[in-house]
């Protein structure tokens, strides 16, 4: 968002409601500023894949993001638009208006952003998109405070920096549009993110050893506030970063009995692809290995278990006491029925809400008909994911 639009937010106070956010980019002076800046960058850009939008989903910035996606789609049709909607982790049951606004803003944001984006991915360390209070997610080797935005932002930034690798690297053949096309078939535009931070590798282990030890569904920590990640996966993009190339394949002596089919693979890409095929047969998967780890030097907060080495490997002896400087990370974007369940739950919560009790939200530029339309669109989005796991309506 341009500086002028930011000043408008300051003048109006906090953006609490979706309609307030939309109105910012309806004002000619801020709209013209945004368009001028976009045109400037377009002229300076050698190769434009598309646009990424990061915005809060739970407050009025969902309206800003929704309006921005609409403008970008109108102005740059055919370019990729990937929208990341950020949500806080735990919330207080003692703040009913804030929680209701969170529900309404999230619902409106997802509906409008998915209509104008190639993909939409909620990002949160919380467990629910709606009013259901769930504990924040946990990581075996991280000690973080879910009430501190600094901690939450660092973890989500680590995941975001990893899952966007496929279209950010010059060497990668995948573009934003190609990635979106793989994940958003049949209208499944809302995807989920997950990550293993850090990826658990013991010094001397190979990638096949670590994946066999890691197992299946427990490999991932969900990062999209969509609840239980079990369900039908339709397509996924998986990135593993930060492992030395010597660790990518098995280092067993010739003639040694192989512990698993993964140990027979010739490349790290083959190992990861074979692992995903074993865990989720028939799922369309795109895999990427990146040698560069994720840097976690200050100002990155100190969140790591003392059982990690300087490079984020799991120590099997006493802690060394050295500060962690980099970590390996396994991250994924997934199109799955988990999104459908979460969208359906959100629609049911919205349907139970008497919006007339929240006139201040409606006064910000939303009408009763808009709520009914959002409810219908949420239901339609959820239906896109109905499939082989018996997803409820």
Automatic annotation (TrEMBL):
Among InterPro entries, the record links this protein to: DML1/Misato, DML1/Misato_tubulin, Tubulin/FtsZ_GTPase_sf
> What keyword terms does UniProt attach to this protein?
Cytoplasm
Where does the record place the DML1/Misato tubulin domain? 16-169
Task: Please state where this protein is localized.
Answer: Cytoplasm
One Gene Ontology term from the biological process aspect of the record: mitochondrion organization
Q: Which residues form the signal peptide?
A: none
* Pfam families hit by this protein: Tubulin_3 (PF14881)
Q: What GO cellular component entries does it have?
A: mitochondrion
Q: Which PANTHER family match?
A: MITOCHONDRIAL DISTRIBUTION REGULATOR MISATO (PTHR13391), PROTEIN MISATO HOMOLOG 1 (PTHR13391:SF0)
Report the protein name in the record: Protein misato homolog 1 isoform X8
Origin species, per record, is Neomonachus schauinslandi
Q: Which gene encodes it?
A: MSTO1
């Amino acid at each position: 968002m341009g500086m002028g639009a930011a000043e408008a937010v300051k003048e109006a106070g906090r953006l609490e409601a979706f309609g307030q956010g939309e109105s910012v980019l309806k004002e000619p002076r801020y709209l013209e500023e945004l368009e001028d800046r976009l045109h400037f960058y377009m002229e300076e850009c050698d190769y434009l894949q598309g646009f990424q939008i990061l915005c809060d989903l739970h407050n009025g910035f969902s309206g800003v993001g929704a309006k921005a996606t609409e403008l970008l789609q109108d102005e740059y049709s055919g370019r990729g638009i990937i929208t990341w909607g950020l949500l806080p982790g735990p919330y207080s049951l003692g703040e009913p208006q804030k929680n209701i606004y969170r529900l309404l803003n999230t619902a409106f944001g997802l509906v409008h952003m998915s209509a104008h984006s190639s993909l939409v991915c909620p990002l949160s360390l919380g467990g629910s998109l709606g009013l259901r209070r769930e504990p924040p997610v946990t990581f075996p080797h991280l000690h973080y405070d879910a009430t501190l935005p600094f901690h939450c932002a660092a973890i989500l930034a680590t995941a975001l920096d990893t899952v966007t690798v496929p279209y950010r690297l010059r060497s990668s053949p995948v573009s934003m549009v190609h990635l979106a096309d793989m994940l958003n078939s049949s209208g499944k535009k809302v995807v989920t993110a997950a990550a293993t931070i850090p990826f658990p590798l013991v010094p001397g282990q190979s990638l096949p050893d670590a994946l066999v030890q890691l197992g299946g569904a427990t490999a991932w920590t969900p990062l999209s506030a969509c609840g239980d990640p079990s369900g039908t996966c339709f397509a996924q993009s998986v990135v593993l970063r930060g492992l030395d190339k010597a660790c990518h394949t098995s280092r067993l002596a010739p003639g040694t009995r192989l512990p698993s089919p993964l140990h027979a693979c010739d490349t790290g890409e083959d190992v990861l692809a074979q692992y995903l095929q074993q865990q989720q047969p028939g799922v369309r998967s795109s895999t990427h290995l990146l040698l560069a780890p994720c840097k976690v030097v200050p100002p990155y907060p100190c969140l790591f278990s003392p059982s990690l080495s300087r490079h984020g490997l799991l120590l099997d002896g006493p802690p060394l006491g050295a500060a962690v400087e980099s970590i390996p990370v396994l991250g994924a974007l997934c199109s799955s029925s988990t999104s459908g369940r979460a969208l359906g739950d959100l629609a049911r919560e919205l349907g139970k809400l008497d919006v007339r009790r929240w006139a201040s939200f409606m006064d910000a530029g939303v009408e009763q008909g808009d709520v009914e339309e959002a409810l219908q669109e949420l239901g339609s989005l959820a239906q896109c994911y109905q499939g082989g796991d018996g997803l409820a309506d």
